[in-house]
Specification:
about 0% strand, Methane Monooxygenase Hydroxylase, Chain G, domain 1, single chain, about 85% helix
């Protein structure tokens, strides 16, 4: 009976993590959308919502630590709890990146964009999918799916480098301060999305460790 109760608590931890992941993914999607459409009201809502996601992270951390303190988890149970704990931290940091993008939306404001935003929304979709599949790999205990997510990050890095080169060409072309200010903020946005991919990789690496008990770095 005690073991059944413990297993139920472990399952609830994962369910909490998945709910948090859903909210974080939605926040990231809306953040990129706020920039592409220059929706300042939406950007403000995203920044305000970051406190809620911070609270979810804190609640998950408290529940994980309580389970560790009050139970005597086996080695595999410890791997589950630490995986949930670390994945929650990565998700909270993804939410921070979403808030950063929303802040950039506010900085640029209604100033006409120097270029159509194609690459940045595309990167947003890609890293959002990486987060989704990383959490799916956790639920399914699928180490191979986790590895594919880690390898996918190489494509994100390549997209980031290509966009970096393109925006650097805009800098070389020169222009007024407003143009340069916008270029730098778009560079920051691309960097934030590249970091989201890194957080997805972190979760993928934890899934591999959870399933196989080995640590792999990508």
């Amino acid at each position: 009976m005690a073991r059944t109760h413990f297993d139920q608590k472990l399952k609830r931890l994962e369910e909490q993590l998945l709910r948090m992941g859903t909210q974080v993914s939605e926040t990231l999607h809306l953040a990129v959308d706020s920039l592409a459409r220059q929706d300042l009201d939406l950007a403000r809502k995203i920044i305000e919502a970051d406190d809620h996601i911070d609270a979810l992270d804190l609640k998950l951390e408290e529940d994980c630590l309580r389970l560790l303190a009050l139970q005597q988890p086996l080695a595999k149970d410890l791997r589950i709890i630490t995986t949930v704990l670390k994945a929650a931290t990565d998700l909270e940091r993804v939410a921070d990146q979403a808030a950063n993008i929303a802040e950039i939306t506010l900085r640029i404001g209604e100033e006409p964009l120097i270029k159509p935003l194609i690459d940045i929304p595309y990167m947003g979709v890609e890293v959002e999918e990486m987060i989704h599949f990383a959490l799916e790999a956790l639920v399914e205990r699928d180490a191979e799916k986790a590895r594919q997510i880690c390898l996918q990050d190489e494509l994100i890095d390549e997209q980031y480098e290509n966009l970096l080169l393109e925006l650097m060409e805009y800098i070389q072309d020169g222009g007024d301060r407003k143009r340069m200010f916008q270029i730098m903020n778009l560079l920051f946005t691309a960097r934030f999305l590249e970091r989201v991919g890194d957080h997805a990789v972190n979760i993928g690496e934890r899934v591999i460790y959870l399933v196989e008990g080995v640590r792999e770095k990508y």
